[in-house]
Queue: 4 jobs
Job 1
Amino acid sequence: MQIKDGVNIQGIDIRMRPALIVADELWKRFGQELVVTGGLEGVHSAGSLHYYGFALDFRTRYFELGTIIDLTKLLQENLGADFDVIQHRSHIHVEYDPK
Ligand SMILES: [Zn+2]
């Protein structure tokens, strides 16, 4: 697992840990090393859970679209309903947001 330069994951909530573990394992299964491209830093939409340490972004640019769709589905299934997994153009966003 790599953390992209400039990305701050210090202060990420401990409840995000399963997302890192599951993503790391899935990325390996699909032949890539996981790269965290978004944490607490940066500018996000107002109310974004990134500001609270409840969201992470994972790089997907080395995958084909079909694989990205599969990964989004697998992450959601493995993490369960307390997490939201959202596919974006350049990354998959995962947040802890129990209903
Ligand atoms: Zn995000």
Note: The chain is about 30% helix and 20% strand.
Job 2
Amino acid sequence: MLTFENVCKSFENGAATASRMVLNNVSFTLKPGLSAAIVGPSGVGKSTLLNLASALLKPDAGKICFEGKDIFSFSEHELNNYRNRSIGIVFQQHLLFPQLTLLDNVLLPVLAQQKITQVHRNRAIELIDLVGLSLVINNYPTTLSGGECQRAALARAVINNPKLILADEPTGALDEMNAGIVSNLLLEVQRTDGAALLVVTHNQQLAAKMSRQLVLSHGCIK
Ligand SMILES: Nc1ncnc2c1ncn2[C@@H]1O[C@H](COP(=O)(O)OP(=O)(O)OP(=O)(O)O)[C@@H](O)[C@H]1O
Ligand SMILES: [Mg+2]
């Protein structure tokens, strides 16, 4: 489903001349329908790895394949399909649009692809119910708590039934109870939809719920 083959990524070091190698020959495979966690401390490169998997960043070397195809060889159309349909992303910051209601935020990835129909609305309403936010469906994000925004972001990530869910520290801003709710929901949605799930986190409790745990350390996966 998703394969990293000897992926390297460096960043320029501000004023310093040498660039910093964040990922150094990272290789792993995530199989369809399975879940995995990549764990590592702050700054180790977890968000970088997910941004590469989402094709938001390009690797310096190596290959990232989705269903056997290099995502950086996709045509513009294929890339749009990949980003909007094949994958669903839960960002480290939930990135809800403050000027849209919760319902419209959840429907946004549909709008990026096509006209919104009643079928889409019903799915959004169903997902919002699943994440326990029916009572605030027409509220704006500024009136929601951090935990509620995270749950809304989860609903938005799966609205298009993605084959692969990428979640960056999805419980980062949450207390233990809300973290438990969000991680269980993530797994429930993953199992219901038969999607693959890749979570990057420093939270060991969240990682332990995934079927595989990989450690990102000094640029490499162990
Ligand atoms: N666009 C960028 N330009 C320069 N350096 C960057 C850029 N993005 C990330 N970095 C650096 O790469 C390293 C890894 O960053 P990344 O955000 O992937 O870490 P992380 O593991 O997600 O950390 P956290 O757990 O705090 O979210 C950090 O040292 C960061 O400063
Ligand atoms: Mg991060």
Note: The pocket of magnesium ion (ligand 2) is lined by residues 46-47, 92, 168-169 (CB under 6 Å).
Job 3
Amino acid sequence: MKVERYNLFLDFEDNNFKGKEIIEVETEGNIELDSLVKINSIYTGDNSPLKYEVINDKVLIYTGNFKGKIFIEFEGKVSTNSLVGIYRSKDIITTQFEPNFANRLFPCVDNPEYKAKFSLKVSVNRGLQVISNMPTEKIEEKNGKLIYHFKETPPMSTYLLFLGIGEFEEIQKDKVIVATTKGKIYKARFALESALKILKYYENYFNMPYELPKLHLIAVPDTSVGAMENWGAITFRESSLLVGETSSLENRKDVLLTIAHEIAHQWFGNLVTLKWWDDLWLNESFATFLELKCNSKLFPALNKLGDFINEYTYASMFEDSLTTTHKIKAEIKTPVEINEAFDQISYGKGASILRMIEAYIGEDNFRNGIVNYLNKYRYSNATAKDFFASLNADILEDWISKPSYPVIFVKVEGNKIILKQKRFALLHNVEDLTYKVPITIEVNNKLITKLLENKEDIIVFDEEVKKLKLNLNRTGFYRVHYNDLNYVAYLNDIEIAGLINDYYNFYIAGIVSLQEFISLINKYKNYKGLNTSEMISSILSYLYKINPLKYKQIAEDYIRAQLIIWKNYSNEEERSLYYRLMRRLSFIDENFSLALSELFPYYDQIESELKSVAVISYATVTSNVKTLIEKYKYYSFDEDKEIFLNGISAIRDPVSLKEIFMSLDTFKYQHLISLIIWLSNNPYIRKEYYSIFLSHFKEFKDFAINITGGIWGLGMLIRRIFPMLSLINKNEILDLLKEIEDKDLKRSIDYAKEIIQILENLS
Ligand SMILES: [Zn+2]
């Protein structure tokens, strides 16, 4: 079957819509469409009705062998309790179709392989504006309503269609338009200027122009995702798009990263699209990897590489050392599996593997491979195999088709370096594998590279080994265990952070003791390195949240020592780190937060980085939920709201929890989901939260399922909240998991069980 074109007319009245659709199609057998709207009639061009049957979310149309136009009349509702499909977010109507929610707007073949052209007409009440992938051709007035006619799209997948209805404000330069809801456009300038630079960077990198006549970046008040790359009409969380001169560095970097990611998709994903969701990594690994390439080129003052390794490489390595991990190219059949594929393996691991391959085959070869691939498959679909063929790098295939990654055990004997590889797992019950590992070693200041393909290998050096290090700049996706750390030398900041991350994971896995891990940290207590400081302080904050008594001293000692070092920061990144350290310490040490909490009334006057320190301090000292919620409501931008949300989740007095639960309808859905997760991380109120969470479990479950569009929403709660709650009563949580037992949630349940075991070991 082939769909040539969808001709769609949609008439909106409040939260209801009526649709007329003409599908141009060619098929050898009956047609099966995906649909969650109410079908009123289906007929052919000469008005003869077609027999059809609605079976759950499918419509089977008895056409037999057919070529021509099929007419469908239908109606549907704009959702008010969901953040997928077509839904209302405050004053606007917006859509989120990836991966399989276009069927909530119109009957279609909701499968990325079925690319078609879209010709869209939308009727709305006067005063409302409509945005879609293409520019408007004309706006017609009819029966007191406005009909927006959009130019036809190029062939594209259904998940990339976008529709936004409401009162927008816009600014434009060249092809780029930033749109916000009323009153917010004055914070769009930074996004507009950055997007123009980023777009130009990609046109040059891909050696191919951006194909559509315009590119909208739209700030959506409430969304379940960070951003969505709809072709020509990208949607963003407000905090990932709208920042001002005075916004914190973290927020401004988030905007740059998100824009770089989503614009990369305009080629990687939109122009060339995966054939099926098992190759989701092709979209996401690239967009994530290109965040790094693009931003390090355009904004060299930012610590882009450090952030990338921290947020993607190490985060995905953690997930990838669990038994529930999967190959990058995953097996995907059910809707649950499709939605679960949007994980750290597809994003972080895939992107890190691409970084490793680029370093291995060279920047030019890598880029040429990409450009050839895009040229060959533009306006169509491709698979991993097609990509491997363009890139000509067989080690990539090895990494895509195996789960997990190795730890390299290093042993020095005179002039010999003995390397052994073993699949790394946090809890040891996995099948061992052998990987093709591009190894970089610096020995006595000389660089050696080699491809380790066997279990064991010996490098014979021409003199006695005195100093060495492996995995330079942490380009390789592997961990390194040295049998004697005294040999390890010349490490730069990124490499020390990597060493710490490796040994932290060895501690979790029981390969090194807590004592050994702490003495490694103490070695770097007075070391001045952005990435090292971020790595150690975030690990210690996390451990503190698991067991404050056990980890308080070490966490406090380390952060205090670091605060002295960074007091005289000399650039934005250092300043940002300095305040992050303060924020972490103010959660741990009430004496420290006491003085800082007095800054709270001056929230509007103090510099952005200090705002979140003041709010966390105020929250830990006063637990004044009422005021924090008032502030959350008062500020209109998410960058402020999120600071107060963080504060609310940092309170110390469990009595105040009740007040949070009486005001749940105050929060945007996207914030409510964060809040119920964050509260479980707070050790001061965990015990009381435990009872409240369990007594509200049914409501939370329904809420999560509704906003994410399926049972995977419950999977998210199970993975993110249950492990932390198990610290209160492990057996009760395990019993609850047993009760839930649902084959679609198997992966989430197994994941939670494994994290529960890990937390028990750490606590
Ligand atoms: Zn993406």
Note: The first helix runs from residue 189 to 205.
Job 4
Amino acid sequence: MDWSKYFIPTLKETPVGTEAISHQLLLRGGLVHMLTSGVYSYLPLGLRVLKRIEAIIREEMNNAGALELFLPVLQPLDLWQKTGRDKTLAEVMIRFKDKRNRDMCLGPTHEEVITDLVKAFVKSYRQLPLNLYQIQTKFRDEIRPRFGVVRACEFIMKDAYSFDRAKEGLKRNYELMYEAYQKIFSRCGLKAVIIEADSGAMGGDISHEFLIPAPIGEDEILLCNQCGAGRSVEGDPASLACSVCQGGKMEKTIAIELGHIFQLGLKYSDALQATFLDEKGDQKPLVMGCYGIGVSRLIAAIVEVHHDAKGIIWPEPVAPFDVEILPLKTDDSSVINLARELENELEIKGWEVLMDDRAESAGVKFNDADLIGIPWRIVLGKKTVTDQTIEIKSRRSGETRVVPIREAISRLQELLTNA
Ligand SMILES: Nc1ncnc2c1ncn2[C@@H]1O[C@H](COP(=O)(O)OP(=O)(O)OP(=O)(O)O)[C@@H](O)[C@H]1O
Ligand SMILES: [Mg+2]
Ligand SMILES: [Zn+2]
């Protein structure tokens, strides 16, 4: 992809009224744009990151046996009245009347819709277990949208819902989701802290939150200063010794919630009378679990963790491009031809390449490259012509290798695959 034909509107200045470093860098790097408070557009570069994260999530969800579907955002309010959540979620729900004067809402979450759907098709224990998920836009009229895509009014969530005959099946599905979440966050370059969340008003049901320590977090957790194990701040305040390792101390830390998994039990199936017939022909309520990941919030969390003073440092698996080629003399056709050859070979090998073909100064190109944070950079400068060498630079370590042109592809291939 040529930068000159692409759309990466980078900004030199930090946009006013932005507190979070991730918010600033996502705006400055031309990845997202604010339409109005809490509502964001994803520009081509941001969309690439989003798609890569979604691909990782899909792969892990599918591996865990979950099936993807796509549920409507537009929902009749009477469905929500049946569970009483038209009231409990009234604060965040976006409601209106349609042209036929029906009360409607834009889905803030999808438990009601999925339970209604499964109820229509699942009649027998033979059709269970079932785990259905989607990657979908959610609408929540947050009182305080903050930190860009971290707390938005329109955002993307992966939400999965499992249906089982009994608690044992739910536990199995829950375990599968727990493991899938660990893989997803680690593939996105994040070390998620998992805490058993307060079951609170939900009664004895089990729930876990996946969080990332970051200064903009809105949750307070206890984190072991030695092994990184996490715990909820609720509970015994006297015991700050870590129960996982020897000698670690639990310290209060601010963290962002990225995922939440929940053993729901019968809450929605009872309210919506979603039942099945067991082996004996008895009618039983479906046993449910739900599993959410804030996909758009994840982008911000990755930037919170992976950046330096100059810009974003994308972890390889979620980077918008794998390699950026930076020919410094765009008016020298021998340099450009070499850059094009490298581009071609890399693309044939399946790597995504961004070519900064703009007739800008080296300074502008380097600054933009640091800002948008593509993991590997190939610079074709003066020495490319005189010494037949190129420079390969790692955005993360800053390490630069000077490599003969004919070895460029094999060296890069090595670096990219071992990353
Ligand atoms: N307003 C929002 N903007 C972006 N992502 C969100 C928002 N609200 C929730 N999420 C993401 O969706 C995931 C699942 O939604 P869930 O309903 O469990 O969140 P929540 O408990 O309301 O989160 P929070 O406490 O942050 O409001 C959350 O873990 C979070 O990553
Ligand atoms: Mg919320
Ligand atoms: Zn510990």
Note: The chain has a mean pLDDT of 95.
